[in-house]
Amino acid sequence: MQPTSRTIPSRSAKRAHYDEETVYSILDEALFCTVSCVINGQPFSIPTAFARYENVLYLHGSVGSHFIREIEKGIPVCITVMLTDALVVAKSAFSHSVNYRSVILFSTAEKIEEYDKKVEVLKWITEKIVPNSWGYLRPMTESEVRKTTVLGFKIEEASAKTRTGMPNDEKEDLDLPIWSGLIPLRSGRGIPVADDFSKNVPLPEHLRHLS
Amino acid sequence: MQPTSRTIPSRSAKRAHYDEETVYSILDEALFCTVSCVINGQPFSIPTAFARYENVLYLHGSVGSHFIREIEKGIPVCITVMLTDALVVAKSAFSHSVNYRSVILFSTAEKIEEYDKKVEVLKWITEKIVPNSWGYLRPMTESEVRKTTVLGFKIEEASAKTRTGMPNDEKEDLDLPIWSGLIPLRSGRGIPVADDFSKNVPLPEHLRHLS
Questions:
Q1: Which residue of chain B is at minimal alpha-carbon distance from A146?
Q2: Does residue B2 form part of some domain?
Q3: If exposure means fewest CB atoms within 10 Å of the residue's CB, which of A72, A137, A201, B135 is most exposed?
């Protein structure tokens, strides 16, 4: 992607990436993003689930949501995603950092009106959260599809920013007898917990290998 | 806190909380927030570390950061935080949800200029990331403090939104032989990994019990 004045970071520009592969891999790993927009001149943001397919990021929401109604007009939005990999513990507080992979995307919504395309996007969003589950679930009804707004955001003005590796302490601090290194931040899916209406239902294959 | 038109959610208003205890507990558990503002009429947002003390949320950043220079002017910001506890897997895609605890805060920056207060806030931010570590680290220098901007945001217009519990499937779906329940989302600190400059330094007490 072409860097723009908005996607070139003012700090640590060497940590920025503009290739689709890096941007897409972060978007595909993250389950949630934060969508920001301007309403009546004021900033407003909301965390939500999303999915990417080709060069479009998709969100969904209730047709009754005030926020969705604003952004479906096509006003400018800024979407950010952050994956945190480790706390970077240096010998000085000033050199502390975080190993992260983040994406910033500037775009505007295109409302998906076509019925079959809406259903397809809802499948992508559902299967991002629980892979391979769509065909197992009770099929969506027309009424449910109608109650849901689906928005697509072209990924054209975006960049990734990443930090990896060990602390970068000042040279004069390196010999200090102070521990420095990484504290990994772990995240993942745990063991499924059935509700009262699934006591006699076997855990399906696609949930068995999730954790 | 007093609910306002901006902090009352347009959907699932019963999931909203306005008491300090709920809002503060989410802010204190989350390591990162997303700060949004309006620059030249456009939305802009950035994920960053933060700490809360009493009724103020504190951020820090480089004095050279374009974003920090904008928000230190006192323009309106929207700060969001989300903790995700579980994926809520229902018998229909439409009833899928997420168990989360989020906060939305509208505020404006107050720049902390007083030297000792700046150092104190930097201690809070550092010790949120690595509790009890401040006194162990190489002390901050005056030059490092000068290179850092510290901003405080009063927590007055804020709300929390939380979802807990099992899926809420439609009554007519409850007897379907489809598995429903929760997939916990786990996150936490892993086992510390020393860098090359700490091979002979014992892991300090405050890092030993972190994972």
A1: B94
A2: no
A3: B135
- How many domains is chain B built from? 1
Q: Which amino acid is at B67?
A: F
User: Taking CB atoms and an 8 Å cutoff, what residues of chain B touch A210?
Assistant: 183
Determine how many CB atoms are found less than 10 A away from the CB of residue A168: 13
Within 10 angstroms of residue A147's Cβ, the number of other Cβ atoms is 12
Tell me whether A4 touches chain B (CB under 8 Å).
Answer: no
Alpha-carbon gap, residue A1 to A97, rounded angstroms: 27
Min Cα distance A54 → chain B (Å) is 23
Whether residue B187 is contained in a domain is answered as no
Residue A44, judged by CB atoms within 10 A of its CB (0-12, 13-18, 19+), counts as buried
The residue among B118, B179, B186, B205 with the most chain A CBs within 10 A of its CB, best to mutate, is: B179
CATH of residue B106? 2.30.110.10
Q: Which of A169, A56, A12, A153 is nearest to B46 (CA)?
A: A12
Q: Which residues pair with A151 in a beta bridge?
A: A59, A111
ipTM entry: 0.95
Number of H helices, E strands in chain A: 5, 11
Residue B181, domain member (yes or no): no
3-state secondary structure of B164: coil
Q: Is residue B54 part of a domain?
A: yes
Domain that holds residue A34: 13-84+99-170
Taking a contact as any Cβ pair under 8 Å apart, which residues of chain B between 147 and 166 contact chain A?
147-148, 166
- Residue A71: CA count within 13 A, CB half-sphere: 33
Length of chain A counted residue by residue: 211
End-to-end CA distance of chain B: 34
